[in-house]
Amino acid sequence: MTTADWRPEGWLDDATLAAVRRQLPIVYVDAVPVRVDDSGDVVAVGLLLRMVDGRMTRALVSGRVLYHERVRDALLRHIEKDLGPVALPQVPSSPQPFTVAEYLPTPGVTPYHDPRQHAVSLAYVVPVAGDCQPQQDAIDLAWITPEEACGDEVQLEMSGGHGYLLRQAMAHVGRLP
Amino acid sequence: MTTADWRPEGWLDDATLAAVRRQLPIVYVDAVPVRVDDSGDVVAVGLLLRMVDGRMTRALVSGRVLYHERVRDALLRHIEKDLGPVALPQVPSSPQPFTVAEYLPTPGVTPYHDPRQHAVSLAYVVPVAGDCQPQQDAIDLAWITPEEACGDEVQLEMSGGHGYLLRQAMAHVGRLP
Amino acid sequence: MTTADWRPEGWLDDATLAAVRRQLPIVYVDAVPVRVDDSGDVVAVGLLLRMVDGRMTRALVSGRVLYHERVRDALLRHIEKDLGPVALPQVPSSPQPFTVAEYLPTPGVTPYHDPRQHAVSLAYVVPVAGDCQPQQDAIDLAWITPEEACGDEVQLEMSGGHGYLLRQAMAHVGRLP
Amino acid sequence: MTTADWRPEGWLDDATLAAVRRQLPIVYVDAVPVRVDDSGDVVAVGLLLRMVDGRMTRALVSGRVLYHERVRDALLRHIEKDLGPVALPQVPSSPQPFTVAEYLPTPGVTPYHDPRQHAVSLAYVVPVAGDCQPQQDAIDLAWITPEEACGDEVQLEMSGGHGYLLRQAMAHVGRLP
């Protein structure tokens, strides 16, 4: 039986999900999409551009793990949702994340913050080899160098600790400026 | 503001928690308590003995991460709850787990299984230096060698994939038999 | 300046290298070649078959890191040397290995053994997407399941701790039987 | 037989070691000594102060792995050599480093540099619980906050990429400023 064959007893409606989000930590995944060269060295980072409240923001690929969904299937689903169906992501063979990002509704307890909820997010660097197109609410997908990604300008356009997580990812792959 | 200063808007009552457990993955931590020598090499593994339905079972330290609780605080809390207040655990300085155990209500999708819920558990090897005493429902805490821990006899006394996770932990520390 | 542009002051001749191997640990890489599905889950492991002293043996991709060579370039070079030029290996973006295998000339100190030398080997799981052909001294490259790879029959055909390292790799990717 | 019981066939004399250092990568370990709180959170980083060519420099604990010495024994030996015999280091139970630092004699190929040699260094964060005293050539051991450790002033006093490795360590433990 695969994940796809399975159906839950009932989805949470939006009101219930909102209530639960104030009472339980929610399981998330964060993916840092990267382009790599033949030696696996990261040469570019892909960031989603969105307009939020009239302000340009940049974000990583991020989303919830569903009931009865494996972490690796959630990763694949969110990457396809945000980068399109032919991004050809190389989902890691090991479930070991490079870090765990703890988004709390109270700012300052951890480097991460989400006013809506307490999310515990497994973070992965994911090389994508195919053609990526911004989907849904994103207005662009920009590929920038690790140096640009960690620079003040880009960091200020990221919120909730995504800029911090991105710098941790670059430290992990040895491309922190 | 520390984790301890914070109070939730309202705890989930048991019925609601039971319902949510059929609809959302729950964040867990698993700790493999170990004794180490001066070089950090694992010399013994601590397993909790419990009577479950009249049968002797062995288990790792395991439990839920609460709303607004950091993963490292959940680890410390569960270790103190199961091993007592003077176990002196060395909670890892990095949140990177050695693996992520996905306990699904359907057996066979992953090596882990929990009929009550879908738990996504961050797994850590935790050296404990102090005096450990079984608490609450546990009738004993047995320290056994990595070889014994991975042997058929002990593995058969563990359920839900704890035996599997224990072998992964021993592979991670280089003590798989 | 890339690794390829660089030339050493002088290669070690075979006699000197043999002498040094009895006096200094040598830097190695080990790669476990795998096939993965779209979700990154390991479905097969690639093992090299060689005749050694009239006996069939199975081995991982393994070799020395050269002076002034980056670890990732050594990984790529040894994979191409053993699996051919169109294997399309996905060399990890992070230098963090899943473990470090310490091959000592004295058996029993660690799970790894090499009578010729003390090698400290950085071990990686490397998905390969392309066509693989055994090269040089290998007579075949067999793709087998993780279950077969960890089974007694295959484990007995591996020597020096390669079977042990393979089981650690399968534990790391969640495919230990 | 333990590591300590073993004697090499012959130590390398200084001239030979110097020659080999221009021809083979040398196995190293780097340790970032830290103080942690009960939850394992890093509260301070320990840096060695030395006078080098009349200039004040700060350094991590770093050194060679000897022939037939396990990585964990080398870590313990170098920490005791630099922090004294009662530092009570908690050497990691797993050999998996948080990163691998590649010190090349040519600057700019990697973030690390060592004009004397090509060193491949396994890097670990090591909590120390005891009393630390600077030894030998160090004139002081300063405990500073992660924020100070990553600040410009301290970073400029570190050389060869130690400042970079320190920032990677802080990213790994979630304490990058």
Automatic annotation (TrEMBL), chains A, B, C, D:
A Pfam family recorded for this sequence: DUF4916
GO molecular function, one term: hydrolase activity
Entry keyword set: Hydrolase
Protein name (database record): NUDIX hydrolase family protein
InterPro entries noted in UniProt: DUF4916, NUDIX_hydrolase-like_dom_sf
Keyword Metal-binding: no
